[in-house]
Structures are given as C-alpha cells and as structure tokens.
Amino acid sequence: MDDFLDEALGGGPVICDPRFSRYYALVPVGLPTTLRQMAEAWRALEVDCLGHGSYLGVRRLDAVNGEHGFASYRAVPMHSAPALCNPLTVARLIAAGRY
Fold first, then answer.
1. Segment 78-83 long-range contacts (CB within 8 Å, at least 24 positions apart)
2. Which DSSP state fits 52?
3. Tens of pLDDT along 28-64?
C-alpha cells in the first residue's frame, strides 16, 4: 500500500497509523472552497480531514516503515520541507477508491 500511495500521490508525504488502519496524506494548509465541500461529503465514507486545532502524532523522520509494530510511521516520507500532497490528487484518489 505504501508504494501505491507513493506513486498515486506523486511522492507526497503520507503517515500510516496501523493501529487504527488509517492513512493521512499531508496537504498544504487551507483548501479551496470546492475541496472543503467535498471533504464534508467524504465523512459518509469515513474520510476525515484534520484541520486547525487537530493533532497528528508523527514519529521520528527515520520511522519509514511498519517495523515497529503498531506505532505510526511515514508510509511515504517527506522528500523536502515544502513538498506536500496536492489536495486535488488526494481528492481524485478518494473518488477512485469510492468507486
């Protein structure tokens, strides 16, 4: 799954929390209005968008695979500080998963 997300999201960083079977694609702060509306509709699909006031615990930068049991890890490491997932690409991946 990690390799698939790396390719599908263009290398944008993704955190995996295997304890709760969750993946978190890291996107820039502030979504365009259309994507915010889509994010609200995703709640029915059990897709949550964390925003201001949210906390996501992330392990050390070198924790890049599931070798530490059920601790969260970087499924797709951040390649550089400004390199985040494109929100539209994440939206397309969610839409594809839905269908």
1. 78/13, 78/26, 79/11, 79/13, 83/11, 83/12, 83/13
2. T
3. 877 777 777 777 777 777 788 887 788 887 766 666 6
Q: Using one digit for the tens of pLDDT, what is the confidence trace for 61-93?
A: 666 665 656 778 888 988 776 788 988 888 889
Q: What is the mean pLDDT of the chain?
A: 81
Closest to 27 (Cα-Cα) out of 92, 85, 77, 91 = 85
Rounded-to-integer distance, Cα 96 and Cα 78, Å: 24
Whole-angstrom distance, CA of residue 40 vs CA of residue 38: 5
